[in-house]
Write a structure and sequence with these properties.
The protein has helices at about 35-40, 115-125, 130-135, 150, 180-190, and strands spanning about 10-15, 20-25, 25-30, 50-55, 60, 65-70, 80, 85-90, 105-110, 115, 140, 145, 160-165, 165-170, 200, 210, 215-220, 225-230. The chain is α+β, with helices and mostly antiparallel strands. It has one domain: Fumarylacetoacetase-like, C-terminal domain (Fumarylacetoacetate hydrolase, domain 2, Alpha-Beta Complex). The chain binds manganese (II) ion.
């Protein structure tokens, strides 16, 4: 190729139990997808799911057993954790029916949708895009992806996050307002999904601030742990 500078490296996430990696294409996120989190954000409507994105290179892939590290970002005084089930897409498709959606899933992982909450509220209140609050560098830490066959039935799995050993978030994947198949179906009406896409499916209640030095330990039954320290 005749690029004017070296092309950026491919962002990838380890696949659990293998030496292989999942190359990341796009990151989609679902907003307010658990009832109790929606309430704590001040909403009670029953609208269809809505989506936002992060750049693929916001990913911080953390290998099994490791403690990852992310810097405290600039321009915020209120960095929040959002523990989330991440769906990894393995097959291209658009306008995917709910009943076909499971066939498009490569696997699942534990992820964090790190959020500059102060900027999110400021942008929200002015009707401006969320990018600076959601799509910043290092805002998408993620644990290894478990292929569907290895993940087991995650539909009723516990999802939880501790900060410095104290419980902050604890819920069940069964409490998703729009479940994984419904989310894929909705999202694929707006975008052609492609192998390498990651979907952060939303966070349960209990979001809160973290500061430099804090240790975040997230987990979803069947998908292992995600451990991140704020530098
Ligand atoms: Mn989120």
């Amino acid at each position: 190729m005749n690029h004017v500078f070296a092309a950026p490296p491919t962002v990838s996430v380890p696949v659990a139990g293998t030496e292989r990696t999942f190359p990341v294409h796009r990151i989609y996120c679902v907003g307010r997808n658990y009832v109790e989190h929606k309430k704590e954000m001040g909403f009670t409507d029953r609208d269809p799911p809505f989506f936002f994105t992060k750049p693929a290179d916001a990913v911080v892939a953390i290998s099994h057993g490791a403690v990852g590290e992310i810097p405290y970002p600039s321009a915020t005084q209120n960095l929040h954790h959002e523990i989330e089930l991440v769906v990894a897409i393995g097959t291209r498709g658009r306008n995917i029916p709910v009943e076909d959606a499971p066939g498009y899933i490569f696997g699942y992982a534990v992820g964090l949708d790190m959020t500059r909450r102060d900027l999110q509220f400021a942008m929200r209140d002015k009707g401006r895009p969320w990018d600076v609050s959601k799509g910043f560098d290092h805002s998408a830490p993620i644990a290894p992806i478990h292929p569907v066959a290895d993940a087991g039935d995650i539909a009723n799995a516990t999802i939880a996050l501790d900060v410095n050993g104290a419980a902050r978030q604890s819920s069940s994947i069964s409490k998703l307002i729009w479940n994984v198949a419904e989310t894929i179906a909705h999202l694929s009406t707006y975008f052609e999904l492609a192998p390498g896409d990651l979907i952060f499916t939303g966070t349960p209640e209990g979001v809160g601030a973290v500061v430099s030095g804090d240790l975040l330990e997230g987990r979803i039954d069947g998908l292992g742990d995600l451990r991140v320290r704020i530098a």
